[in-house]
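Late entry, evening session. Most of the bench is empty. Finally got around to the prediction I had been postponing all week. Sequence below, unchanged from the version circulated by S.P.
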Amino acid sequence: MRIAVILASTLWLSHAGAQSPTAGARLYEEHCAVCHGAHGHDGFAADIAVARIPRAPDDASLFKLIKNGFEGTDMPPAFGATDDEIHGIIVHVRGLGRAARERAPGNRARGEQVYRTKGNCGLCHMVTGQGGRQGPDLSEIGARRSAVKLREALLDPEAAVPPGYLLVNVKTKAGGSVTGIRLNEDSFSIQVRDLNDGIHSIWKSDIAEINKDWGKSTMPGYRTLLSPAEIDDLVAFLAALRGGL
């Protein structure tokens, strides 16, 4: 009887320990911080230091997201973690969402004007169905990137080029040339969206040369194009874009 009680107590302590903030913090630091950042809002992946994570508003959905990953994004399935370990990570992530954060300076209304005029952001980016397609859709960017990362992207676009936006230049044997974002590529063909939003599908048998500019971006850096106040305003506007959430 005593052995059974000791065993049950040990199992309970193990279960509780796996879900403790300390255990969850350690697991988060080892496996999650590389993408989401140490504080949940300072990495290149989605900002999860929020009161309500759009794709995981409750613990059940967050558990499923961590365990199975999110298809079509950089979020992989769990790293072989047990259910208890995942619950520990959830405890830590929810704590990140409750932590106090400095409010981003800037004025949203003025930032929207900068976005639509001087910044000319809609030429390449789309918000709620309006704009270009050269860059990522920004309709929910405030839910996916922190103000820190938004500012970084504006000042130094090549610091973290989003996956799926590889800049290529394709030269054909007939003397043609296409520069733009690679949409798809296989052993036989490549599809490119050019800088005027046109789409080209080219057989590799017709190609003389393909140049792939890894880490390069068609987006201009706004460090010299906008004033510090305009950068603050634009960041405030982008941070508020949460797809109606």
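Two things to note before I forget:
The domain at 2-98 is CATH 1.10.760.10 (Cytochrome Bc1 Complex; Chain D, domain 2).
The longest helix spans residues 2-18.
Will write this up properly tomorrow.
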